[in-house]
Amino acid sequence: MDMPKSQADPQKIQADHVRKALAKLYPDAHCELNFTNPLQLLIATILSAQCTDVQVNKVTPALFEKYPDVRAFANASLPELESCIRSTGFFRNKAKNIIACCQAILKDHDGEVPADQDKMTQLPGVGRKTANVVLGNAFDIPGITVDTHVGRLSRRLALTTHEDPVKVELDLMALLPPKEWTIFSHRMIFHGRRICLARNPKCADCTLRKFCPTAPTKEG
């Protein structure tokens, strides 16, 4: 039986306000990494750590042509792969993780990216954030991706008090319908990149301001 609105959890009411406002602002929000299959999205997401999606998208066309499948990545020369992804930053660790990840996919999953969070997070270099990106966008399995934008906005909008991404993810999961998890993440990321910036948020231009507890009360 539904609880009367007056007795409903205030945080869930807040989450609903945020969800609806973001849906109006960004009806077409989507994953901004370019990919054509789960493996490509997995590789692109690993590369996106501490790197912009724009830069990753500059690197991946040639990368995916050189390494067209999981076996090609698994058998890649480490120095050659490092050279291909150098411009994404932290390229040595990323290259090691990509090769080890693809070797594990070949060995343990018959060459297919597993559509399961627990199995995916057992792969080298794959955490919950990466797994949720791949599950939500390549397999249509809902998941909340907590990157720096989602974490920052969630705290500013009083949807969580936590800094730890896993705790933020669990808080958001409890506040939102599962079918909304993936698209909500995209919309939060869009808003974080465009309006709710880390250092100088554009509060005067923000339509979420009316229910944002951290927005300034006066201009200037």
TrEMBL record:
One of its GO terms (biological process) is base-excision repair, AP site formation. Residues 47-194 form the HhH-GPD domain. It catalyses: 2'-deoxyribonucleotide-(2'-deoxyribose 5'-phosphate)-2'-deoxyribonucleotide-DNA = a 3'-end 2'-deoxyribonucleotide-(2,3-dehydro-2,3-deoxyribose 5'-phosphate)-DNA + a 5'-end 5'-phospho-2'-deoxyribonucleoside-DNA + H(+). GO terms for molecular function: 4 iron, 4 sulfur cluster binding; class I DNA-(apurinic or apyrimidinic site) endonuclease activity; DNA binding; DNA N-glycosylase activity; metal ion binding. It comes from the Bacteria. Keywords: 4Fe-4S, DNA damage, DNA repair, DNA-binding, Endonuclease, Glycosidase, Hydrolase, Iron, Iron-sulfur, Lyase, Metal-binding, Nuclease. InterPro entries: DNA_glycosylase, Endonuclease-III-like_CS2, Endonuclease3_FeS-loop_motif, Endouclease-III_FeS-bd_BS, HhH-GPD_domain, HhH_base_excis_C, HhH_motif, Nth. SUPFAM superfamilies: DNA-glycosylase. Its cofactor is [4Fe-4S] cluster. Its EC number is 4.2.99.18. Binds 1 [4Fe-4S] cluster. It is an enzyme of class 4 (lyase). Belongs to the Nth/MutY family. This is Endonuclease III. It comes from Telmatocola sphagniphila.
